[in-house]
Every structure is written in C-alpha cells, then in structure tokens.
Amino acid sequence: MDAVGLLNEAAAAGLRLRLDGDLLKVSGSKAAAGIVERIRAAKAEVVAALRSGSSFDQLHAGADEQGRYALDERAAIYEYDGCLSRIEAERQAAAEWEVSSEWTK
Fold first, then answer.
1. Which of 13, 45, 51, 63 could form a disulfide with 3 if both were Cys (CB 3.0 to 4.6 A apart)?
2. Are the C-beta atoms of residues 13 and 88 closer than 8 Å to each other?
3. Nearest 5°: phi and psi at 4?
4. What fold is seen in the domain 3-52?
5. Where in the chain is the domain with CATH 1.10.10?
6. Are 55 and 94 in contact, with CB atoms under 8 Å apart?
7. What pLDDT digit, counting tens, does each position of 13-31 carry?
8. What is the pLDDT at residue 103?
9. Cα atoms in the 13 Å half-sphere on the side-chain side of 61
C-alpha cells in the first residue's frame, strides 16, 4: 500500500497524523496499533505525502476570503464527487489552483 493509502486508512481508523519539524506524531486509538506499525515502516514516504499536501494549507493561508472559499469548494468537490480522500482532494485542489493561477498571469 502506498503512503496516501496508509494515510487514508489511518484517517478511517480515527488516527491523527501531524508533522512537528522532522517528527511524525500520531495520536488515536491503541486499537489501530497495526496501522501505526505500517506507518512507522513507511515513515519517509508518509512524511513526503504529508509535506506534499501542505501546499493546500500554504495556499489557503495566503488566499483572501474568496480564494479560501474557492479552494475549500474545489477540495470538497474532489472529495465527495470524485470519491477521493480529503488529503488527495486537497492535493488535487492545490494543483488545480496553481495551474489556474499560471493561466491568469
């Protein structure tokens, strides 16, 4: 399973993952210990996947109110209509935003 798949599985199990510098912090139920072990084994890939998703957060933080609304709406469309995980939906929305920003320059 790839890193995004692991992140989706972790989210479905109620785990929360976050980066704290170079540390990967995981919180949630001890019942998901097997998933945590697989995340630990693929830590480099999981960290890379989390970092690549951060462009959505950076775009969102730097956007005005209308831009934040547009990013959130696009991510929601990808998530619900496209049946993507929230992480993948945000990645797609950020990529689309960056491409459309290039088109308007």
1. 45
2. no
3. -65, -40
4. Arc Repressor Mutant, subunit A (1.10.10)
5. 3-52
6. yes
7. 878 777 777 788 888 888 9
8. 40
9. 5
